[in-house]
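Review form for a predicted model. The reviewer records the input and the model, then writes brief findings.
Reviewer: anonymous (R2)
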Amino acid sequence: MRFLTNALLSASILLFASTSWAVNINTADAKTLAKELDGVGDKTAAAIVEERRKSPFTSIEDVDKRVKGWGKKTSEKNKGKVTFSDKQ
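Model under review:
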């Protein structure tokens, strides 16, 4: 039993460590955006929230074009970390 418990715990740790979490840029609050995205501080996170009120983002290139403080380097750092659904 102890072996099974240790095996399950080890498998859980490996699964958790290999899982990357994506942030929905169209629904996350500014605090979450600043915390979870590389190169995004409070001002850029607030700009994302303000800009998406006009219309949801559709791609990382869309964010790059529309948000002051978000550039190509930020896009590269966050590819794969961002989703774009406009539903919660």
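Findings: The chain has five helices and two strands.
Further findings: Residues 2-18 form the longest helix (17 residues).
Recommendation: see findings above.
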